[in-house]
Queue: 2 jobs
Job 1
Amino acid sequence: MNLVLNEEETMIKEAANDFLVENAGPDHLRNLRDDPDSKGFSESLWGQMIDLGWPSLLVPEEFGGLDFSHVGMGQIMQQVGCHLATSPLLITGILGVTLLKSSSSNHWKAKILPLIAEGKTKMAIAIDETSRHDPELIQTKLTPKAGEYVLNGTKLNVVDGQVADSFIVVAKITSEKPKEPDDICFVIVDSNQKGISVKNNLLIDSRKTSSLNFSDVRATDKQILKFNQSSESILQMLLSTANIYLSAELLGIAEKAFELTIQYLKTRSQFGVKIGSFQALQHRAANLWAEIELGKSIVLKALRSLDEIDKDINKIASMAKAKTSKIAENATNEGIQMHGGIGMTDEFYIGFYLKRAKVSQMLFGDWKYHLDRAAYLSGY
């Protein structure tokens, strides 16, 4: 496996950085935070991403996309972390596309994928039902009724739920045979469908998630996504994909936090000298640099494993998420420590990175969850 970016991947990374330097960053996020009408992301930034073709990168060519690699898209997500860019790219342009591509439901592929490629629709994927990530605890029910189905249940921490045109809901479809266990399914419903209520929640990083309640929401068999594999394996694949891209974002957060900290060490004076000359701080910075370099390798390996459909992708994804979560935690915590208390003031950028890192670490499982998952998948 090649753990070096090729020419195309490098160009995408550089182009994403150049664009986001001008159009994103802590100052833009601060303005978004202070806007009382904010939807939790920058609509103007999202529009520019659409113009650049980012939502179409993973969409197959037959549906109007570019059919590019996960490694290429991963470079964009890494820069998203560096510049704290807010958009529906992760959920709609990556996870929504990945799930639909895996489906054998050609109707939904033909209907939704071209819209995603053109930036004309936004999706949300509703999985978790508790405050902490637990994909095995699914109590939302899809129950047969009068030749159709009714959907009942509650979903928490739904990213982009406040702006989605449609929801892909993970539910248990009730077996008509009493002794057979209920199976996991993915059902697509319009966000304005009768029986759906949405409550928005503001996160510490100024973004939003939603709590969704489904009360006798009607659905047909056509709305249930079909797959050639078990729905349980598809769910694990989807979550692994999500966590690999979050790992790329966390790596970007760590890199930028480290850069800001080094800049501060070179400019802040104490006792008549720059504090970067203190050996104790140099040692801490050197250790952090080494950890970030390790993070680059595990993230690139995870992204290449997605492209190569590695049989150990679930284990690799959890290893990447566990490692980058700790790296980002250390980078932002050390950044605050080396800035001193002033680092948490609104004037300095490092606090914005700490807040985003906390949210990304918890989304779809924190480092403890993934450390346990990686150990379990390794046979321990």
Job 2
Amino acid sequence: MKLARFFTLFTVLILVFSVGACSSKKTTKLAVSDNADQPRDGRDRELFEDALKEMQKKRYEQGRLLINTMVTTYGDSPLLPMAKLTIADSYYREGGTPNLVQAEAEYRDWLQFFPNHELAPDVLIKTAEIHLRQVQTPDREQEHALKAEKILLETTRRFPQTKDNAKIKEYIDLVQEKLATHDLGVARFYFERRDAWKATESRCLDVVNKYPSYTDLDIALWYLGRSLEEQENTEDASKYFARIVREFPSSKYRDAAAEKLERFGKAIPDPDPDVQEKVAERRSMMMRVMENLFGPTVAVSKEGILLKEGDKIDESTYELISNASRNTGTSPNSQGSSIGTKPAITNTSNSEASSSGSDNNGDANQPKIKEKKKSKKSKE
């Protein structure tokens, strides 16, 4: 009996010491982990670098977690604009409606924090591109086209230097062509199917006044004149028929407009030599069908502002990060960080690269991860 009690007591003591040893080991590991994440000089750059590497591997969520850690821990870091912009870019790069909605929210949030940043115009353009990627065909609702137009016009108003930006001009022409085509389609439906002359007039007036460069402006002028004629307002109708004869001498509606003027007892004007004819080369039927099926004919970039094709960063991004890193008061290289500095292209580095083999071929413009690890070991 005594022997049994002895073995029982001995077993309990062994279990107690085992549990104590395990808990001490876990506590030690936790303390080490907590100490590693303590704020220290250069840690913000390391977190940003690690986030970029995660995103280059398409692990966007992990990259965003690292950046959020950096933002909450180093709220005064000069890399903050680049970090928050990278989060927005990651959602844009992922694509899909939910991610594009989140990307716009992140870009808008960025603009509130940094309204006068040098990248602010690019961020506004990117929010417009989010809507351009979701533009519907002209026979559907044009919510995204309207939002894109509003953003693009806001960009040219807030940043006058962007008015001559070829991309903005192209995008504005694209969305206005879509919006005008949609309104003209509705106007023709009212005229041909509903005999709704006033509704036709309203829609055509919008097209004529808002979109003077519209490809099919002569068609809008024709239906505007016809709707006014049906309302027995031949005086105003004559003005629009005269515009067709004067500004669109090659239009298929030119002869019919001239007949209307003659019937109303109005003079038939000569073509205006100072007005460049606005009737563009008519697109083929197949091209129109393709546009109606697949939406915009202008390719919208799927690259982010910082995250380019393949989620890599190019020379322009390196330059932006480098400029931000200089504001830390210490050299980016002093902490062993590989971002913020373009890879050196010197004879010395080339000879070292050739001696170390071809492990880094194709990654000349990416963070030099291996070099960073070596620098850490040398410090230890």
